[in-house]
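Tokens for chain A. Residues wanted.
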């Protein structure tokens, strides 16, 4: 396929992938040639008659795989954001082959011998700090990939990796299929009583798009507690909606989760670790299972006590409606009632103040200009991978170019749930690449001609994901291995969580929180009430999150050889043991749709959100109290942390900004757990 657009670097600005030219049949040949090309490049490194040097081994390794990198970056985003049956089939085929390809590189004894020789001589090579870190990180990656294992153990490792890659794809596809299939179909608008008129219209449009004209369809979000639960007045509809969410892929993914957990435990044992969690955290900022255990053990009792206090308030409100026992499908609804009564905050009444275009331009982009001097120009001449995708050029304060930002904000049937950031081109000085990044969200499509009005949580998600985008855009590193978000898993959420602070900063909130019809600003007194109402819900949010975290931890602290008969039984026992079996608060993700840990890179790493939030809360306090102008603080945060990617130790970056080790107190205060 000589016309395959992946075979050569894109000629578009910033090497934006030529989406208008890419067809489904281009992916497989590009993957196959990309893998073959990289293996040939590796063979050339190994065959070099010269003794191993930094340039002929490490730099050559960083240069290898250009074609494979191009197609992988595009494909991984495409199957998540706009998949088709053909792409799903290819994903299932190619995932184990890519795992085998990675093993072929990292388990090549001659290649590792060259890397190891350099590592042993590292003190004599006169490398600068970034070059030395590249050598150390590559050596660590080879060792953690099995380079020091026996031949028999390496063979078993290859088998495990291939099976896990296949299972991960199966798990993700099962979640996607079940999430679509279990969407709640309703016959009348009356059943949606309590939802704003715009959301009811969106449900009708959703039904029409799914071939159920005349009905109303509530598509499921990827997490357990669906946002509509806060407003639906019909208790039976609430129960049906939550049941649909909680029951996803129970039969399809239960056995997959069990097999993956057991295989991961076996793999960890090959490396001498007692569990997969031990293997994972050894290369994260946490360092040890005990460090994570200590943090979680400190938070769980206080979070549960906080949630119980909230439950008592909700029970009073529910009793007024004749409900004697608060159920899980009641929690969000009565939380909303309590907020209205106690804090005079009506979430539905807030939405007209959060119109997508204004939040994006006068909120997210405005904050980036305030802190970093950036400006954004929409490029209608550049094409995304779907008609919904918008392309923005990002410029520095002096007008020089930085990179491209793509926004894919709306939900559709071909898109996976949740929100995420992907890199389409990774920044690298070595390769002369500037960053191209994309944010995906799942905001419901409004009825034709209607504005897109966001919930407060959707506003937060928009700011959060843009924090990941900034981490990619600001990358200023030499090597692809360190680019952008290539940092420890329990650090990667930190910059994105910090970026959430701008949504409530007075000058930013005043800029974007305006009524979409009248232009009236969000009343100042309502802002204060919102802050108080946020504190009220922290018990629920913390327990919901910790339940998912401890569930992940339970699956991945399983020792090799332990038999697991049933995924649901294992889940129930794990939550009870953790002290988080709270019937009215299901985990944010149950096992069978917990894609973070079974279909993504967060296995034994979902704790990363709370671990990163320790750093985040401390950094937000630093921004607030350091006495510097916002722009100066932003430049420090960018220069010392956002631009460094993985080229510097993660906690060293934090210390360079804040000037000390992280402290827990700001997180406890934020989460309503002060005194825990």
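Reply:
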């Amino acid at each position: 396929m000589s016309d395959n657009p992946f075979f050569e670097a894109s000629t578009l600005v910033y090497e934006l992938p030529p989406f208008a030219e890419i067809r489904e049949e281009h992916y497989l040949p590009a993957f196959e040639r990309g893998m073959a090309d990289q293996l040939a490049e590796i063979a050339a490194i190994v065959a070099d008659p010269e003794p191993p040097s930094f340039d002929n081994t490490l730099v050559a390794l960083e240069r290898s795989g250009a074609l494979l990198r191009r197609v992988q970056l595009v494909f991984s985003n495409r199957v998540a954001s706009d998949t088709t049956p053909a792409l799903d089939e290819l994903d299932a085929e190619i995932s184990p082959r890519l795992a085998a390809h990675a093993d072929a590189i990292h388990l090549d004894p001659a290649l590792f011998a060259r890397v190891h020789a350099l590592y042993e001589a590292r003190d004599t090579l006169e490398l600068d700090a970034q070059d030395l870190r590249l050598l150390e990180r590559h050596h660590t990656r080879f060792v953690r990939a099995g380079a020091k294992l026996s031949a028999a153990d390496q063979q078993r490792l290859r088998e495990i990796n291939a099976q896990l890659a296949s299972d991960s794809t199966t798990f993700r596809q099962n979640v996607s299929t079940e999430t679509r299939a279990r969407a709640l179909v309703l016959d009348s608008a009356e059943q949606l009583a309590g939802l704003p008129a715009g959301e009811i219209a969106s449900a009708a449009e959703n039904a029409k798009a799914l071939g159920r004209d005349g009905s109303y369809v509530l598509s499921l979000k990827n997490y357990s507690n669906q946002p509509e639960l806060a407003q639906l007045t019909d208790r039976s509809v609430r129960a049906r909606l939550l049941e649909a969410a909680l029951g996803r892929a129970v039969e399809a993914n239960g056995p997959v989760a069990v097999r993956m957990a057991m295989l991961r435990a076996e793999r960890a044992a090959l490396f001498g670790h007692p569990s997969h969690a031990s293997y994972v955290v050894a290369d994260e900022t946490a360092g040890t299972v005990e460090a994570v255990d200590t943090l979680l053990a400190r938070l769980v009792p206080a979070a549960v006590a906080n949630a119980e206090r909230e439950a008592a308030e909700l029970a009073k409100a529910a009793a007024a409606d004749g409900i004697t026992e608060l159920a899980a499908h009641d929690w969000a609804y009565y939380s909303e009632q309590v907020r209205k009564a106690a804090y005079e905050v009506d979430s539905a009444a807030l939405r007209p103040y959060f119109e997508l275009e204004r939040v994006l331009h006068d909120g997210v982009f405005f904050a980036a200009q305030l802190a970093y001097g950036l400006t954004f120009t929409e490029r209608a001449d550049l094409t995304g991978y779907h008609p919904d995708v918008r392309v923005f050029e990002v410029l520095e304060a002096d007008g020089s170019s930085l990179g491209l930002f793509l926004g894919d904000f709306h939900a559709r049937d071909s898109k996976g749930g949740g929100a995420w950031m992907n890199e389409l081109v990774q920044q690298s000085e070595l390769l002369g690449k500037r960053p191209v990044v994309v944010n995906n969200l799942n905001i419901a499509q409004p009825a034709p001609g209607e504005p897109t009005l966001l919930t407060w949580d959707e506003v937060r998600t928009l700011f959060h994901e843009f924090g990941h985008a900034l981490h990619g855009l600001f990358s200023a590193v030499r090597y692809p291995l360190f680019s952008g978000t290539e940092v420890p898993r329990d650090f990667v959420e930190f910059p994105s969580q910090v970026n959430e602070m701008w949504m409530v900063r007075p000058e930013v909130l005043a800029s974007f929180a305006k009524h979409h019809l009248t232009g009236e600003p969000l009343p100042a007194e309502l802002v204060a009430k919102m802050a108080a109402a946020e504190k009220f819900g922290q018990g629920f949010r913390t327990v919901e999150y910790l339940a998912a975290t401890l569930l992940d931890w339970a699956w991945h602290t399983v020792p090799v050889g332990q038999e697991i008969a049933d995924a649901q039984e294992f889940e129930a026992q794990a939550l009870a043991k953790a002290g988080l079996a709270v019937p009215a608060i299901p985990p944010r993700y149950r096992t069978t749709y917990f894609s973070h840990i079974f279909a993504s890179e967060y296995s034994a790493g979902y704790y990363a959100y709370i671990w990163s939030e320790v750093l985040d809360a401390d950094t937000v306090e630093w921004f607030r109290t350091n006495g510097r102008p916002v722009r100066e603080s932003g430049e420090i945060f960018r220069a010392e942390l956002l631009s460094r990617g993985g080229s510097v130790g993660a906690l060293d970056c934090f210390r360079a900004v804040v000037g000390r080790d992280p402290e827990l107190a700001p997180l406890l205060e934020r989460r309503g757990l002060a005194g825990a």
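The longest helix spans residues 151-181. The chain has a mean pLDDT of 96.
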